[in-house]
Design brief:
The protein is α+β, with helices and mostly antiparallel strands and 700 residues long. Helices cover 29% and strands 21% of the residues. The chain starts with a helix and ends in a 17-residue tail after the last strand.
Length: 700
């Protein structure tokens, strides 16, 4: 049977028309003129394009939804972007979620849980509505996916069929697998290809909760996707449903025959996963999946953030028994994972029972089934022990994503941590333009590119594409109460640029309040074995005995600063009087526990090379303020605050969190933090040099 004939009734039952709020079908009047189309992805939730949902002038969020001969009101709960002041095509992701305000029966589509750039090269189907001879008609068609446009989930569609006006926001369906993989965005004119669609993977760009997740409703992404999976599981289990379900439709498609899970097993598993709290973080989910599939997620599309996304990464790596074993181990890991809030005990047990039953039904070797049971017992035991160790009172401020307002900054994690690296490179031959690249730096030191762009104009505000790349990199590394550090690599002339004042997203507070932000020097010349660094051998031998073997004096000083305790020293100011920065040879001979502080680096007439001189003196941890003192300025508060901050931190790796606390207090108007306005920290790890402009990264 043609897959289109199998799936079309299911898709049509979930497709809606979106229009202005108000009356819909009237017995004696015409149907309302639609703005576009949409489709139910969960009970009472419609997915469409932002440019369709936000079409109403004046920023109104109410819409009308017409389906199955009735019209009900809805409200736009999320749209990205919410407007398009530039005109033309709306920028990606161009998606919106609409919540239906009155209950009414409807079907729901099956959303793909796979993470892929281009899902299929085979035929796909689209659905929506259009106006024909003054009448609003439902319409469908077929085309192919020809490739991608950009790196933000836009799919290029072929011109095998016309995509008429009114279809924007409708579903794009993979006919081979029987799942919705995209949202129609635009048709193309002038005889060019058929149009554009947005991958449903872009739904992962829904905002993450700003504080701790205490329930499913605190995270809109989990709320809607869990409802989707529960709906299909309930439909599958209900023997009294007198119409075909999506599971029935999937069972008729030949492409599902070679998979490790039958359609029924797949929908049942996803329904069980939806009964559990979501992963603690995207990072913890990545670590779990990486352990099972043998490779981390490296795509430029948004990384997985829910249990259904994680299982989607296990598909297509291998088929048959190996795939099934990976899925069953994944189910055991999910059933025994840490939780952001408690799970219902019966939900964890039900997932384990499903895994054990599936292993037995597939007649997997007894050795594997025994190992599966043992793995579950070991993980449960480890979780109990961890909970006992963590029973001490928690810090509410840190749990909410903000460092404690008083006292010592949070201790860094043992071992290396991941961080976000933003590289900004001005184009010397194009005044006012720059290139940028955002990477996730793993604890191992490898860099994975998230996105990059070239020839961008203006540094005052980051463009939307850069904001999206930063937000994605943060989501991949943040843990509750412990956001990843943003390292900003800048040329020397821009080291004082206030990236910590950027807002990502625009409606939230500055970056420096949300997470630690430090700078690195991007244009430092390679080390010269016969240059100034060779003069530092006087302290190199002493350091090696305490912190282990090191290869250069600069690395030795870096390691000593992380052993602590650090002793701050203001170099360029003495009781309010400007002072010259010591010579490079003197700085190289400094005790390696001394940390340089610059008070007047931004003053008019100050030595523009003072900071460079300190760096050339072997110092990679430097504190300064980027705002001038002024003629009547008093330095005592800055000296006192900087010295207290460094001394209180004790070790260099605690300083980024200390500045995070200061910037948060400054943003909250705490008077004791006013001295820290414009404070900047150079934190430039010589043991992990920045990649060269042409150095390849771990890219997708």
């Amino acid at each position: 049977m043609d897959p289109f004939e199998t799936l079309a009734p299911l898709i049509a039952a979930a497709t809606v028309r979106i229009h202005a709020p108000g009356p819909g079908y009237a017995p004696d009047g015409p149907a309302p003129r639609p703005w576009g189309s949409g489709f139910f992805i969960a009970p009472n939730w419609v997915l469409t394009c932002a440019h369709v949902a936000m079409r109403q002038r004046g920023g109104g969020r109410e819409v009308g939804l017409t389906f199955g001969g009735r019209t009900v009101p809805g409200v736009v709960e999320w749209a990205q972007p919410e407007e398009n002041p530039a005109g033309g095509l709306w920028p990606a992701p161009d998606l919106a979620l609409i919540r239906m305000l009155e209950p009414a029966p409807h079907g729901c589509v099956w959303l793909s849980e796979r993470t892929a750039k281009v899902f299929t090269r085979k035929e796909v189907a689209f659905f929506g509505c259009t106006e024909e001879d003054g009448q609003i008609e439902d319409i469908s068609g077929r085309c192919t996916i020809r490739g991608e446009l950009g790196t933000d989930g836009r799919l290029k569609l072929g011109n095998e069929d016309e995509i008429p006006e009114g279809c924007s926001g409708g579903p794009l369906v993979d006919l081979d697998r029987g799942e919705v993989i995209g949202v129609l965005k635009a048709r193309r004119g002038n005889g060019r290809d058929g149009g554009l669609a947005i991958s449903v993977v872009q739904l992962r760009r829904l905002p993450t909760p700003p504080g701790p997740v205490r329930g499913e409703r605190h995270d809109l992404y989990q709320r809607v996707l869990h409802a989707h999976d529960r709906y299909h599981a309930d439909q599958h289990r209900n023997d009294h449903v007198d119409r075909a379900t999506w599971t029935d439709g999937l069972s008729e498609l030949r492409a599902t025959a070679s998979r490790a899970l039958t359609p029924g097993q797949r929908v049942e598993l996803l329904g069980l996963l939806a009964e559990l709290p979501p992963p603690v973080s995207a990072r913890s989910l990545d670590e779990l999946v990486t352990g099972l599939r043998g490779q981390p997620y490296e795509g430029r599309l948004p990384a997985p953030r829910g249990w259904r996304d994680g299982i989607g990464l296990l598909y297509d790596l291998r088929q048959g028994r190996s795939e099934l074993e990976a899925v069953l181990r994944y189910a055991v890991h999910v059933a025994t994972a840490d939780r952001p809030y408690p799970a219902a005990p019966e939900a964890e047990r039900a997932l384990w029972d499903w895994a054990a039953r599936a292993a037995a039904d597939a007649e997997l070797p007894r050795a594997f089934r025994t190992a599966l049971s043992g793995e579950r017992a070991a993980r449960l035991r480890l979780r109990r022990e961890t909970v006992s160790e963590d029973a001490a009172p928690s810090r509410p401020a840190a749990a909410a994503g903000r460092p404690p307002a008083h006292g010592r900054p949070p201790a860094p994690e043992a071992g290396a941590r991941s961080h976000t690296l933003l590289e900004i490179t001005p184009r010397g031959w194009e005044r006012g333009s720059y290139d940028w690249r955002v990477c996730v730096a793993r604890p191992s030191g490898e860099l994975v590119s998230v996105d990059e762009d070239y020839g961008v104009r203006g540094l005052d505000e980051p463009p939307e594409r850069l904001r999206a790349a930063l937000a994605e990199s943060f989501r991949r590394g943040d843990e509750p109460g412990s956001p990843v550090t943003l390292q900003v690599a800048l040329p020397y002339a821009l080291l004082g640029f206030p990236v910590d004042q950027w807002r990502v997203p625009p409606q939230e507070g500055p970056l420096g309040r949300a997470r630690p932000v430090v700078v690195r020097r991007a244009d430092r010349a390679p080390a010269d074995p016969h240059g100034p660094g060779a003069l530092a051998g006087a302290y190199d031998g002493d350091a090696a005995g305490e912190v282990g073997e090191v290869s250069t004096p600069r690395q030795s000083r870096w390691k000593r600063a992380h052993v602590g305790p650090m002793r701050p020293f203001v170099l360029d100011c003495d009781d309010g009087r400007p002072e010259s920065v010591p010579a490079v040879a003197d700085l190289l001979a400094w005790d390696s526990f001394l940390l340089p502080v610059l008070c007047r680096a931004a003053d008019p007439g100050a030595d523009p090379g003072a900071l460079r001189q300190v760096m050339d003196g072997g110092h990679d941890v430097v504190l300064w303020r980027r705002e001038p003192v002024g003629r009547d300025g008093v330095c005592a508060d800055f000296h006192r605050g900087a010295i207290g901050t460094v001394s209180g931190a004790g070790q260099a790796d605690r300083l980024p969190a200390a500045l995070w606390r200061l910037r948060a207090d400054l943003e909250d108007g705490v008077p004791e933090a006013y001295w820290a306005a414009g404070i900047t920290l150079l934190y430039d790890d010589p043991t992990r040099p920045l990649p060269g402009a042409d150095q390849p990264l771990e890219a997708p």
